[in-house]
Amino acid sequence: MYKQIGLITGGGDAPGLNAVIRAAVRTAIREFGMKCVGIEDSFEGLIGDLKIVKLTTKSVGGLLPRGGTILGTRNRGSFCSFVDGKTVFPEGIINTAIENLRKLEIEALVVIGGDGTLAIAQEFHRRGIPVIGVPKTIDNDLAATELTFGFMTAIDIATEALDRLHTTAASHDRVMILEVMGRNTGWIALHAGLAGSADVILIPEIPFSYESMVQKIFSREKSGSRFTNIVVAEGALEVGKSEIYQDHGDGSAAPRLGGVGDSVRQKVEELTGKEARCVVLGHLQRGGSPNAFDRMLGTNFGACAVRALANGQTGKMVALQAGTVVNVPLSEAIANIKTVPVDGQLVRTARDIGISFAAPKEGKL
Ligand code: F6P
């Protein structure tokens, strides 16, 4: 049994990170008699001025409703860089971090993060450090797990925003556009669009045409609904065009999407003559308290991750499959992102109830 394990949170924060930390620490101490430390500011805490904090059952008390992560996080840093669209892991930095782990007597790691963080975790595993990953991201785009914690809270927030936009859209006969996160996948837009009664959902997996979008807006007008609510994922793109970026990134940071909502607003005004407004929900989707589901999922993931380590597993990620937490190889989890199946049940349901994806040949409006 390991005497001491380390916990790391990496990537963008997500509601439920603290629930994972709390459950992992309690399980490690109560069930397995291990000591726990937190490594602060993602893997960065393992180099330079080391940032290590002792975690006890007491110090993780009261964490369930707390947003963010008590350990701090980074979604850029020294452990990976982006060269010609490829991720590179600097050998020297990882070796220094491993030497420091040995000096600190941290024998194994629980790494909580999305695809980027788990790819770094995999590099530690490849060099002999026992590692278990915990899938985190509001985007829900990690392969091998049906759900990541943070996603359900993000949907709640986006749904509430759509509900609120609905009443103002209807009062002013406007087109309201809500831009949500989700990077290269449309999970948040699709789920919130269904739950918040959007009329049009734009997702990266289904490139849109303005002709089709305008047809939908006019067909609503004809049937007496003079307003339209559109939810657009930040990575959605027009047929034949590319995504819209706020910042193309540099060697240390991935490109940042953003701006598609406003570009849809301008074009819709131009093509329909209707007033349109755009709201970018941004980091409100990540901040604040996790909902009940994410607290529960985070807790189960945290406890299962420590049990996996204690059972000698390494190079694995805990994952939800058919309602149960299982362990899958990290390599499998980071190999591909999980995109919305364009012919899947939810897309079909959305179309059946009259939601448009503004695809070029959308069919019945
Ligand atoms: O991956 C999570 C996420 O919130 C994406 O949906 C979004 O594109 C990105 O992170 C934003 O990152 P940042 O915090 O750097 O703005």
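^ 6-O-phosphono-beta-D-fructofuranose complex. Residues 154-287+341-352 form a domain with the Rossmann fold fold (CATH 3.40.50.460). The two ends are 61 Å apart (CA to CA).
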